[in-house]
Design a protein that fits this description.
The protein has 171 residues and is mainly α. The chain is 89% helix and 0% strand.
């Protein structure tokens, strides 16, 4: 019932927040890495285009798969992409094209997230709760869209400040 939905909803809010913050940070990082607005625009292009192109197919694909598995695969792809970027960065191998490729893969798998979530929701709750559930999903999407960019910006600033402080200690 609703209690199971609320657990999944909280998980999806956290997932959407993390994905949105990652997308924002990757776009900012692409600009910071190259100093060019073109890199920022291309990062946005590579993150969002796969979702736009695959959205019509994603619904049909999710209908053929286990919805829970589709959500897990989508979240796992986002997590693996983030870890891969971190590993490349720590190894001092990260290049701008890595961000484009990983962003595109994350965007492609992200296109399955909402159809799977919506389909799973209708199976979890009784019809009398559909309006409430729809409102909660819409509120979460809007809140994530508003909260993710400033939160990501705050974290970027905090890490940059920490990195500067650490570099002063080593001098």
């Amino acid at each position: 019932g609703m209690s199971h939905f609320i657990v999944v909803w909280i998980g999806q809010v956290v997932s959407m927040l993390g994905s949105s913050m990652t997308h924002f940070a990757l776009m900012f990082w692409a600009w910071d890495l190259t100093g060019r607005a073109t890199a920022l625009a291309l990062m946005g292009f590579f993150i969002f285009l796969p979702g736009v192109l695959l959205s019509p197919v994603a619904g049909a694909l999710v209908d053929r798969l286990n919805r829970k598995m589709a959500m897990i695969i989508s979240d796992l792809a986002a997590g693996i992409g983030t870890i891969l970027i971190l590993a490349l960065y720590l190894a001092d191998l990260l290049q701008i094209y890595h961000l484009y490729i990983i962003g595109a893969v994350m965007g492609a798998f992200g296109s399955m997230q909402f159809p799977a979530y919506s389909a799973a929701t209708t199976m979890m709750v009784h019809k009398r709760h559909y309006a409430r559930v729809s409102g909660m999903i819409s509120m979460a999407q809007a809140a994530v869209g508003v909260i993710a960019p400033p939160l990501a910006g705050f974290l970027i600033y905090s890490f940059a400040t920490l990195e500067q402080g650490l570099s002063l200690i080593h001098i």
